[in-house]
Amino acid sequence: MGLDNVIKRALTLTLIAAMTGQLPRITIEIRYAQVRLLEQSKASKWGSPDKLYSRRNSRR
Known about the structure:
The protein is mainly alpha-helical. The protein has one domain.
């Protein structure tokens, strides 16, 4: 599937969602999918944001 097909399908989905009033719901679902993707792709050696902030604050 080429990029043109993906863009056409995304545009069609967006227009249908906007016409039916479901655009906010789809936007939220996309955000949840992005968070899940980040969680799944996160390496085990990554630190958590809490630890990074606590290290920075402890040096002051």
